[in-house]
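Why do we care about 3D structure at all? Because function follows from shape, and shape follows, mostly, from sequence. That is the central idea of this module. The next example makes it concrete: a single protein chain, its amino acid sequence, and then its structure expressed as tokens.
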Amino acid sequence: MAQQVTTSFIDDIDGSTAEGTVAFAIDGKMYDIDLSAANAARLRDVFAPYVGAARRAGRGRQPTRRASTRTSEREENQAIRAWADAQDMTVSARGRIPGRVLEAYRSRDVQPAAELPVEEAPAAVPEKKPRRRATKAADE
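And the structure:
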């Protein structure tokens, strides 16, 4: 039985297809919103006069993820789940993928390293005893 899963990136304002995530901050709080190209342009146009008159603050908290990162992570997770299913490994359809499955997936194409010739260690050099400085006797 074949199965095809489609993930859609939806505009949070009008429900159309979103082009990306726009991050902004106001009153010290960060916000992310998924928008189409047209709605992202409208948001930037609304902010333009305020951004033009404002001064830049420190870096502050940066958005943790971008739309392309989310999409690529979803695609990678789908590929990992499909691979694990083909290997008869138990993985839930949602939620965190177990570490043992991730490790097995990432090492699936890794070939063991060919044995390299072992170099002989240099001959051990006898440890020198530290020299003691001659001191005058304390009773002089």
